[in-house]
Structure formats: structure tokens, C-alpha cells
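dude i think i finally got it to work??
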Amino acid sequence: MAYQFHIDAFDNKRVDGWIYLAESPEQPVALDLLIDGRLEKKIIADIKRQDLTEAKIGGHGRCAFSAEFGDVVGMRSTPLLELKISGTDLTVAMQNGEVQRKTTSSFGGLWVDRADFLKEAIRRYNADLIPEHLFQHCMEFSVKGYTVFRGLIEDDIIDQINKDIDDIWETNSTSAIIETYQDGGVLKFLPALSKFKGGTNKLLDVYAFSEAARQAIFHRGISDFLNIIFEGPAVAFQSLSFIVGSEQPIHKDTCYVRITPETHLAASWIALEDVEAGTGELEYYVGSHRERDYIFGGKSKWSYLYESETDNCLASYQVDAERFGHKKERFLAKKGDVLIWHADLAHGGSPRIHPDKTRKSLVAHYGPQTAKVFYADSPHLSFSHGEQRFMSSVYIEQGGKIKSTL
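look at this
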């Protein structure tokens, strides 16, 4: 069962929000409020709200709840408050008596991460700041942690990207760079020589060499959506090209991809061919972007300098998924489909049941141009693409040619 929900407010006096079961949106969901482990209040999510109706959330908008309980909490200064789905072990939200943050993450976030995101989305829609065809994508991105644009990238662009990537491999380019763990399991950056083609090796920042990749990464549909969630033009500062599924463990980009502010980040996954089941398709936990931060060294959202904690971090994503009932889904994409995910969406590569089959894809990481990418103060490639920008940490321009920085 897959529940979709959002907590608008939760402190030691009241809780407000909405929830529905994706398979039965018309059926009200019952909730239990526990205070210090004891059941204190039953709540039914059956209130009709106009904003939910307009956003097409739940059973015609009748899935909201609102409850006051200050009289039950009494004088306890830091009660442990839990909101669970009745008859299950699924926790919707927890609160330790502190004032609720404006965003889920203690590191802040985008406007779609705010507790009042639905009210703000409707305000922006009514002010013509969000076009109608992108409004539902904003809703999905905020609630689920991702949104899908079907058939967005034209076939001729996809075909040219595939050709450009093949050309890089076939010419044994010493400028293009791959990321690989193939030799001894140690991370290395090596020239994109044909002998390294295949496996889980990643071709980095192909947009430095491919106009078609640039067109896809900042396709009008992607660019317009990013402009909305970032509240301004974006920069693409990293891309990864895959021939087969990565089989990478479930992780969150904020663990590895360094940008400041840490949560001002999004990624796109572009299908360069039809994806078959069992080829290591992209998988993710729906709604996992709204769970707790894993804090490295007690202070950082990045694993950088705290690599010894990475295994604990990755394990915590699985624990959260089980505790909060996040459904795991896989993206069986068609050529030209695009999935854009949230910085904190827990995702990875599923097992390759058919190792002889490809799963060609292009991934790009983006941030607002007002953010600072971790390599901004080091030599790097930077160029414009309309109002959007590209940057690369592995390439520079030298003598009119793209050269590796490695």
C-alpha cells in the first residue's frame, strides 16, 4: 500500500495535514496520535479542502485532517509526539515538542520543500508564475520526490547523443574522462579508452563534447521546470552517461554531490533507449525526500571527510523506508522519457538480471545559478546555453579545445 501525505503543521498543540491511500483515494485514512508512546487521540483524514481539490489531491480534496491536543500534552516541555496510520506500524510524522521547521531538512530547502508548499504553489499558479502544464509536475515533485516527463526528448536528439557517445569511445579520446571502480574496486578517473567501454564505468560531463547532450539536458521542458523550482535559471554542473545499469545502492545525492546550499539541487535521468525490466533500471523510494537528515560528523549533510559513516547513512535510508512505509518503484522508461528527482530522494540502480542487455541513460545534476558548486574556486569549464549554464570540474578550455583537468 502506498500512502501520499503531507504535514502542514505539527507542534505540541496541534497537527494539520493531509493523507490518502493511492490505491483508494476516496477512503478516509485513520490516524493515531501517540504521546510518549501512549495512544491519546484518533484522527480521521476526511476534511474537504479547496486547495487540495484544486490540486487534484486525494478523493476530490477530502483527505485533510486537523486536531488540537494541547490539553493532553499539558505542561510537558518536550513530549515525543508520533502520528501513525491506525492498524499499522507506519509512522507519518514525529515531533519532539520543538517548533516545526519551515522545511523538512535542517539545512533548508527549495520553496517546494516548505511546510506551506501547497498554499504557495496555488498562489504562484494564480499569479501565473507556474503554467498549467507544469503545476501537476510541481505537485508530484514536492509530494513524491520526483516527476516524469514522458516522451520529452525528440528521437533525433537521443540518436545523436548515442552517436556522440559512441564516437568518444571509438576514437579512444584522451580528453574525455570516465569514473570507474573496475580496477580493484578503487575509485579512479581515466581517459575514455575503448577498452574501458561497458560495465558500470561512467562517462563524465558528455555535454562538453556533445551539442545534442546540451540540448537534452536543458530541453525546454526541463529548463522551464527547473526555473520554477529554483526560482531562476539553472546550472548543469555534472553529468554521468551509462551504458548499463549502475546497480548502485540506494542513496541520496546530498550525501555525495556538494553544492551550497546543500539542498538546492535536482537531477534528471534521460532514457537513451527503451528500458527493459531486469536491466538495472532506476529505482527509488517514493516520498523518501521528506525524511530526516543524516548528519555526518554531527554537522554535515555530505559524506566528504566522513566516509567512514557512509555505510551507516545508506542503511538509515532502508530503515526510514520501512518505518514510514515508502513504496519502492522502478522506472521502466521509454526512449526520450525524463525523470527529475529531488536532492533527497533515496534512489539507486536495481539488480541486473539480464547482464547482456544495455540500459543507456544520461544523468545530469543541476543547481540554481545563485548556488555555489564545490569546485567553483578551482579551474573548470564554464559556458552559457541560452540563459542556462554548464560547468564541469573535469574539463577546462585550453587553446580553443576542451582538455581534461586530470
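The two ends are 48 Å apart (CA to CA).
im so relieved honestly
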